[in-house]
Design brief:
Elements (H helix, E strand, L loop, with lengths): L1 H28 L19 H8 L1 E8 L5 E6 L4 H7 L23 E4 L24 E2 L5 H5 L6 H14 L16 H7 L3 E2 L1
Parallel strand pairs: 1-3, 4-5
Antiparallel strand pairs: 1-2
Length: 199
């Protein structure tokens, strides 16, 4: 019996030491002046009515790609993509921010993809070419508004709405090829859009 008590005390002591080390590491790893973790998660259910009300005024987004601290972030309702990038520590030097509409509003559950330079499908905007899209950045399928999608050739308001509906149902686009699954966009239309859009 005394040996069991000794082992029990050792386990309690080890757990206490681990907790102290964890708190110390969290304190040292958080940037100065912040009081929240780098990648906060949504509140767990059952925290009370006050937590539920606060959740309604916020959106949770997943920031990935060329940012310093990718992860889940909780932001105020009405925040923009620029706010999400800032919360993720800012863009890395390899980020191709010209392909991202930083002014676009965030939606709850959205994935914000910051593309890297030189990655296929994330080509910099064409400058000085004879095409009609010279000097404009490709449309980002995962964050584009109905109006932005409507500017694409062969995509009217109805097809733009179908793209938004697809994005709402399936989440952010991971590939331009996913457009083929949207009703009204076949292989021929996809080939027309391939150089004008990015995931």
């Amino acid at each position: 019996m005394p040996e069991f008590l000794l082992q029990h005390r050792r386990h309690l002591l080890a757990a206490a030491v681990a907790l102290v080390l964890l708190l110390l590491a969290a304190h040292l790893l958080l940037p100065a002046g912040t009081t929240t973790p780098a990648a906060p998660l949504p509140p767990s259910p059952g925290l009370g009515a006050g937590a539920t009300e606060a959740t309604h005024a916020r959106v949770v987004v997943d920031v990935v790609g060329a940012v310093r601290r990718p992860g889940l972030y909780r932001l105020e309702q009405g925040s923009r993509i620029a706010d999400a990038v800032a919360r993720a520590g800012g863009a890395t030097p390899k980020a191709e921010l010209a392909l991202v509409n930083l002014a676009a509003p965030l939606a709850d559950g959205e994935q914000v993809v910051i593309p890297k330079r030189g990655v296929p499908g994330a080509a910099p905007p064409a400058v000085g070419s004879s095409g009609g899209t010279a000097g404009t950045a490709p449309v980002q399928l995962s964050t584009a508004t109905l109006e932005q999608l409507d500017t694409l050739p062969g995509v009217g308001p109805a097809t733009a709405q179908k793209i938004l509906d697809y994005r709402t149902k399936h989440g952010a686009f991971s590939s331009v090829d996913e457009l083929d699954a949207v009703p009204g966009i076949g292989p021929k239309r996809l080939d027309q859009l391939r150089d004008l859009v990015v995931p």
